[in-house]
Structure formats: C-alpha cells, structure tokens
Amino acid sequence: MSTKVVVTVVGAAALVTVGVLLWRHSAKAVHAGRPAPASGLGDVNGDGWVDQTDIDMIKEAYLTEITLTDDEFARADCNQNGKIDVGDYLLAKRYMLGEIDL
C-alpha cells in the first residue's frame, strides 16, 4: 500500500500536526490491561478487560468515594467475602499484571 501526502504549509507547527495525524492513522490500539476471566471478577465496569479503570473503581469503592451497582459490586469482590476491601484491590491489580489468575 502506498500513501502519497502532499502538503504545502508554512511553519513547523503545521509539520508537527501532519506528523501526528499520520502517526494516529498508522498506530494500532494497544490495551493496557488483561482480558477478564470467565468469572468476570475484577472487570468492574464490564468492558471485558481488567485494567486500571477497574482497579481505580475498586479503590474508590473501598474508600467509599463511589457507590457500585450490584453487578459492579459482584465483579469487584474478587476475594468473594461480601465486601469491597484492600484484598480485592490487590487481587485485581495482581491479575491485571499477570501475576495470578482469578
């Protein structure tokens, strides 16, 4: 595949913009997380991934900064002890990093 881009511009800012646009076009999406286990544990937001968003939601629920729905609560309770605590945070984080399986 050949791509020809002809741009006539004045100034370095325009060249940087063109470079960013070309990079965005060719870059592949990389997800910084791990696919959720079949149980769904750790995937608090239900998007199919255990990632930093889920880890943050567990932390915020533990610190009572947010209230989770019943489904979110069930997925956040990684140690399945009926409450959201630091253990859930650690398990989800270790799962995301590939250290353990849930």
What does this structure look like?
The chain has 102 residues and is mainly alpha-helical. The chain has a domain at 33-96: Dockerin domain (Type 1 dockerin domain, Orthogonal Bundle). The protein has helices at 12-26, 52-62, 70-76, 86-96; strands spanning 33-35, 49-51. It has a two-stranded antiparallel ribbon. Helix 2 (52-62) packs antiparallel against helix 4 (86-96). It is globular, with a radius of gyration of 20 Å. The termini are far apart. The relative contact order is 0.15.
User: According to CATH, what is the topology of one domain?
Assistant: Type 1 dockerin domain
Radius of gyration: 20 Å
How many strand elements? 2
Oligomer: single chain
Uncertain ranges:
1-7, 12-27
For this structure, what is the CATH homologous superfamily of one domain?
Dockerin domain
Helical coverage, percent range: 40-55%
Q: What features would you highlight for this structure?
A:
single chain, 102 residues, mainly alpha, Type 1 dockerin domain, 2 strands
